[in-house]
UniProtKB/TrEMBL annotation:
<keyword id="KW-0560">Oxidoreductase</keyword>
<comment type="pathway">
    <text>Organosulfur degradation.</text>
</comment>
<keyword id="KW-0711">Selenium</keyword>
<keyword id="KW-0813">Transport</keyword>
<keyword id="KW-0653">Protein transport</keyword>
<dbReference type="GO" id="GO:0015031">
    <property type="term" value="P:protein transport"/>
</dbReference>
<comment type="function">
    <text>Catalyzes the oxidation of methanethiol, an organosulfur compound known to be produced in substantial amounts by gut bacteria. Selenium-binding protein which may be involved in the sensing of reactive xenobiotics in the cytoplasm. May be involved in intra-Golgi protein transport.</text>
</comment>
<comment type="similarity">
    <text>Belongs to the selenium-binding protein family.</text>
</comment>
<protein>
    <recommendedName>
        <fullName>Methanethiol oxidase</fullName>
        <ecNumber>1.8.3.4</ecNumber>
    </recommendedName>
</protein>
<dbReference type="Pfam" id="PF05694">
    <property type="entry name" value="SBP56"/>
</dbReference>
<dbReference type="GO" id="GO:0005829">
    <property type="term" value="C:cytosol"/>
</dbReference>
<dbReference type="GO" id="GO:0005634">
    <property type="term" value="C:nucleus"/>
</dbReference>
<dbReference type="GO" id="GO:0016020">
    <property type="term" value="C:membrane"/>
</dbReference>
<keyword id="KW-0007">Acetylation</keyword>
<keyword id="KW-0539">Nucleus</keyword>
<dbReference type="GO" id="GO:0018549">
    <property type="term" value="F:methanethiol oxidase activity"/>
</dbReference>
<keyword id="KW-0963">Cytoplasm</keyword>
């Protein structure tokens, strides 16, 4: 059925407004008097998180978006780009007024994974949640992924083998039917945080490669260097899951 609400992450960072970021719920029902309007705001409990991308938890083992139409996406995963915090939001109980149900603090991410600056979350075929990152706790470049349990949302640890950690990371997408994960390069957070400088492209501050992974072995099988004037970011596969 047609979606009746949309969830949008909203950040106040660098605006001079000292308020927490929030998740906005937008009415998408054309018959509603509030169509196209923000009908609910869920503020986060901390300041200066910088909510970034959001992703669904499928909530059951073996579920992917193209394998079943019965999967209930009732939890939304919100990693934070700057604070490295992770929020889990319940959107299933009241879809028009979601609530915060779990928070994973940065110290747990730093201590258990030596990762930080979290970017994109996606569900794995087994139901667990994979979250990409750009750096380590100190802001040096460090790619890779951390894993959350798909049912308890406990932090499991790093996904990739230690020897396979890329120098930077940002986005990724998986294609389970071909046993492939492709990830893009990111930035060195402690340098890029000062703002975009085109000269930094030649200094290696911005990654410029795509990584091809064996999904089941968690190892890199290919790398593509796209050149010194490139900054590959988003990854999307064709909609046909067999392609």
């Amino acid at each position: 059925p047609r979606e009746e609400v949309a969830y949008v992450t909203c950040t106040y960072r660098e605006t001079g407004i000292d308020q927490p970021d929030f998740l906005a719920t937008i009415d998408l029902n054309p018959k509603s008097p509030y169509y196209g309007q923000v009908i609910h705001r869920l503020p986060m409990p901390n300041l200066k998180d910088e909510l970034h991308c959001s992703g669904w938890s499928t909530g059951s083992s073996g579920s992917t978006c193209f394998d079943t139409i019965t999967t209930r996406r009732n939890k939304l995963i919100l990693p934070c780009l700057i604070s490295s915090r992770i929020y889990v939001v319940d959107v299933g109980t009241q879809c028009r007024a979601p609530t915060l149900c779990k928070t994973i603090e940065p110290v747990d991410v730093f201590w258990k994974c030596n990762k930080g600056y979290l970017t994109v979350p996606r569900s794995l075929p087994n139901g667990d949640i994979l979250i990409a990152n750009m750096g380590d706790a100190a802001g040096h470049g460090k790619g890779g992924f951390i894993v959350l349990d798909g049912k308890t949302f406990e932090l499991k640890g790093n996904w990739e083998n230690e020897c396979e950690t890329p120098p930077t990371g940002y986005d990724f997408w998986i294609q389970p039917r071909h046993n492939v994960l492709i990830s893009s390069a990111g930035v060195v957070p402690r340098i890029a945080g000062r703002g975009f400088d085109p000269d930094d492209l030649k200094k290696g501050v911005y990654g410029r490669r795509l990584n091809v992974w064996n999904l089941s072995c968690r190892t890199i099988t290919q790398c593509f260097d796209l050149g010194e004037d490139s900054l590959p970011q988003s990854i999307k596969f064709l909609h046909n899951p067999d392609a």
